[in-house]
Amino acid sequence: MAIETARIILFAAGAYLTIGVVVAAVFVIAGVDSIDHAAKGSPWSFRLLISPGAAALWPVILRRWIDAARKPHR
Amino acid sequence: MSVGYTWVQWNRHKRVYDAVMVAGAAAYIAAFVVVSRATWTADHALSDEILLLRALGSCAIVLLHLILCIGPLARLDARFLPLLYNRRHLGVMTFLIALTHGSLAVGYYHGFGVLNPLVSLLTSNTNFLSLTAFPFQVLGLGALIIMFLMAATSHDFWLRNLSASTWKRLHMLVYPAYVLLVAHVALGALQNGRGPSAWICLGLGVCLVVGLHLGGALRELRRDRGHPVVNPVEDWLDAGPAAGIPANRARTVCTRGGERIAVFRHDGKISAVTNVCAHQGGPLGEGKILDGCITCPWHGWQYRPGDGRSPPPFEEKITTYQVRIIGGRVQVNPRGLPPGTPVQPALCEESPDA
Amino acid sequence: MPDVVPSKASREDGFYVGYLPVPGGVRTFLKRVLPLVVCVVVVGALVLARSQRDPGGAAWDSATVSASGRLVATPYPALLVNDRGDGRPGTVLLVETGKHGLARAEEFHNHRVTVSGRPLRRDARFILEVDPGPDAVKSLPDDPSRPIPVIIPLGRMTLRGEIVDSKCYHGAMKPGDGKTHKECATLCIAGGIPPLFLTAGPQGETTLYLLADPSGGPLSPAALPFVGDPVELSGEAATLGGDLPLLLVAPGDIRRL
Ligand code: HEM
Ligand code: HEM
Ligand code: FES
User: Fold this and answer.
1) Is the CB of residue B234 less than 8 Å away from at least one CB of chain C?
2) Spans of chain B below 50 pLDDT
3) What would the CATH number be for the domain defined by C152-256?
4) Is B78 at the interface with chain C, CB within 8 A?
5) ipTM of the modeled complex
C-alpha cells in the first residue's frame, strides 16, 4: 500500500471515529432513553459501557434515534 | 429480561466465573514470562516489551480457543453450560488482552520512526503474495477490529437495538476472525525460528476447534433427523408420542424449512414454542419448566408455555405454535403464531406426568 | 432475575440456571474440569515460551561512554577508531535515539572527533547511540593534510543472508532480526539507521557487511522491501578502513529466497 493511500484511509477512519465519539457522547447522555425505554434512569456505568459501540456504530445509532424521534409513542 | 439496564447484572456465579478467568489468564502470562526469563538470561534475555507482547498475544489466542470450544461442548454435554453462561465476559477480557498485545506491537515495532506508526503498519510490508514475507500484522489488525465490534456490542442493549439477527451475524464473524488469527500466527511468529512444538500446539488447537464443531453439528443433525415428518396431516408435523416427553422437559422437532420447535410437557399438558430464545438464541428445547415457566438453559430467561410471554415485569415474547394430540401422538402446526399469542395446550390422555 | 426463589426442581436433575445455586452434579463436574483446563493452559504457556528462539547475545548499556576517531558521514555515519580494544583499527556505527540515523554527521565529515553515547554491544562489536544535545560530538585538533577516507573495492561476491538494521541487531531489540522484526528493521533503515547484511560463513560463523549503494551513498530505498527476508544478493565488497567491510549493492541485484 502506498503511503498516501494509507494516510487517506487513516484520515477517513479518524474522521469517522471523531464523529462517532461526538455522537456517542450526546447519545448516551440524552438519546438512549428515547430509543429504548429500558435505559430510562440507567446508571452511568451502563452508559459508559455502551459508548464504544455507539461511537463505532454511530450511523446505526443515529438512524434509530431519528426513527424514535419521529414515532415518539414507541 | 431487562426491566432496566445496569452495566453488569452481577450474581455469585458471574463473580466466581470472572475470578477463575482472570486468575487463569494471569497464571498463563506469569508462566510465560517466568519461563522465558529463566531460559534466556543476561545478554541473551528477550526485550521486556517483546516478551510481554508475546505473552499477551499467545494468551489471547489460547483464550479464544476456549471461547470457541465452549459452544459445542455445551451442546455435547449440558454440564458445560455454566461456562457458556458468562462467555461474554471471557470474550471481553480476551479482546482487552489482544488489544494490549496489538498496541504494544504497533508502538514498539512501528513506533519511534519517521512514519506515523499506523501508516507504518499499513505500508511497511506489501508482500501480500508471499507466504514467507506476508505482512501478518494486518491479519491481526483485522481480527482485532472484529473482536472490538463483538466486545463493544456485547451488552444486551445492543442485542435488542441491533436486532437479534444482526447481532448474531456479528458474532458469526468470530469464525473469520479465528481464521485471520491462525494465519496471523502461522505467517508471523511461527516463522520466526519457533520450534516444532509451537506448530504442534497450533495444530492441536485448530483440530480441537474444528473437531468439536463437527461433533456438535453432527449431534444436532442426528437430533433433527430423529423426528421425521411421518404423518404430515394437513401439513401438521408429527412430534412423536406425548408420553415420551419427560415431565417439564421438551422434545425438539424440526420443520421442513429447518426451524426448530420445542414441544414442552407440563402438568399433563403439551405446549409448543420456538426453540430460539429471545435473548441470544439459546436452545429452549434443552431448557426446563421451572416454577411454571420455560427456562432457557443459557442464561435462564423465562417464558410461560401457554402464551410465550415472560412473566411480569419482563416483556419478552416468543413465537408459539398450535398443538394437538391424535392417537397419543403430538402434532404441531408448523406455521408459527405472532410472538406472545396464547395457545390452548393439548391435554394428555393419561394421568398428568405419570 | 435475582429474586426468583431457588426451585427444588432445578436441582433434582442437574438443570443449571445461572442465577440459582449450581446443582451438585454440575458443581462436582466443574470442580474436576476447571482445574484441568487451567493446568492445560499453564502447560501451554510453558511449551509456547520454551519454543521461542535464542535472541542472541547483545546488550544495551545504560551508562554513557565516549570514543574518539575519524568521523565519516557517508555512506552512513561511523567513527573509524585506531584501536578497537585489541590494537587493531575498528568501525563504530553512530545512530540517534529512536529509529533515526545520526542527523549531525555531515558537518563533522572527516573530522577527528570524540563522541559520547550509549553503547549497544553484540559479539566483539559495539555501536553508539549518540547522546542528544550539541556537546555529544566534539571536534578534536587534527592534522589537516590527512586524506579523506575513500572506498576501496575488493571484488564482487554473491551472498545469502538477511538485511538487518544495525541498531536493533546490536541489542536495541531482542530479537532484532528475523521474520517478526522485518517491519521494524524497514522503519529503522528508512529512518537512516545503517543497514547490515548478516551472512553465515562456511563454518556457521556470522559475518557482517555494511550495505551501501554502488554510488557510494546510502542503500537505495528500493531495497527496503527485502529487509528482514532471507535474500541472495550480489555486489562489490569494499573497505573504508576500520573493521566493517562494505557491500555495495544495487536493489536489482537482491532476490528473495
Ligand atoms: C493490531 C493488531 C495486531 C498486531 C499489529 C500484531 C502484531 C504482532 C506481532 C508483531 C507479533 C510478533 C511478535 C514477536 O514475535 O516479536 C505478533 C505475534 C502474535 N500475535 Fe499479534 N498482532 C495483532 C493482533 C493480534 C490479535 C488480535 C491476536 C489474538 C487474539 C494476536 C495473537 C498473536 C499471537 C498468538 C502471536 C504469537 C506470540 C508469540 O510469539 O508467542 N495478535 N503479533
Ligand atoms: C471478543 C468477544 C467474543 C468472542 C471472541 C466470542 C466468541 C463467540 C463464538 C465462538 C461464538 C460461536 C459459538 C457457537 O455458536 O458455538 C459466538 C457466538 C455467540 N456469542 Fe460470542 N463472543 C464474544 C463476545 C460475546 C459476548 C460479549 C456475548 C454476549 C453478549 C457473546 C455471546 C454469544 C452468543 C450468544 C453466541 C451464539 C450465537 C448463535 O450461535 O446463535 N459473545 N461468540
Ligand atoms: S439465550 Fe440467554 S437466556 Fe436464552
Assistant:
1) no
2) 1-2, 351-354
3) 2.40.50
4) yes
5) 0.93
